[in-house]
Design brief:
alpha/beta, Glutaredoxin, two-stranded antiparallel sheet, 9 strands, 18% strand, disordered N terminus
């Protein structure tokens, strides 16, 4: 089963460790949506989260191999991470209920369009509990009602699972990783990224 939001951060640590929440947790979830919605306008205005920290790429000797996976995308195509070796992969863990995730999607679409020819590959991993039942309509709308952003993703979108979340140490969303051309994790960022900073790291890995 997939994660649900908790206040401004979308924590899934407890979700992976235990089954369904109590009714009191439902109130927390509702509050999380409200907090997230209130912060979206200012985040959009700044093209990043106000608290978005600048990242540092993991030094090459310290990078670990990205866990492999094979999943099916929205078009029924097989997406195997090993097929992307030789490219820089932006791996985005997101969900349709995650406002910060949806804020980032247009940025990742922009990176994909601008840098695909240079060797960037973007993969979106939805962690929605309802899977394609909610993800397909979200993709079909192309514009998100909450953020007003373009969500017509042209890069592969797959449905993740708890096993994959554990392998990537996914504890809250949004979470985005950069995987270098050798298939090693060069950066893992939890929370909304600093757009300009993140793009600079992508360009560095593409050199």
């Amino acid at each position: 089963m997939k994660p649900r939001p908790s206040f401004a951060t979308f924590s899934i640590r407890e979700r992976l460790a235990s089954p369904l929440k109590s009714m009191s947790a439902l109130a927390v979830t509702t509050a999380g949506f409200l907090v997230c919605a209130l912060g979206l306008s200012s985040m959009q205005a700044q093209n990043q989260s106000p608290a978005a920290a600048r990242d540092t790429l993991i030094p090459k000797p310290a990078r670990s191999i990205a866990p492999g996976f094979t999943l099916i995308d929205a078009h029924g195509e097989r997406i195997d991470l090993s097929d992307f070796k030789g490219k820089v992969v932006l791996l985005d863990f997101w969900a349709t209920w995650c406002g910060g995730c949806k804020l980032e999607i247009p940025w990742y679409m922009e990176f994909d369009k601008k840098l695909r020819a240079q060797g960037l590959a973007v993969i979106g991993v939805s962690m929605d509990e309802e899977g394609w039942k909610v993800v397909r309509p979200f993709l079909a709308r192309k514009i998100d009602a909450e953020t007003g952003g373009n969500t017509a993703m042209e890069y592969p979108v797959v449905i993740g699972n708890d096993k994959l979340a554990k392998e990537y140490n996914l504890t809250s969303m949004p979470m985005t990783l950069l995987i270098d051309r050798e298939g090693r994790i060069a950066l893992s960022h939890t929370g909304v990224v600093n757009k300009a900073d993140f793009e600079s790291h992508i360009l560095q890995l593409l050199k």
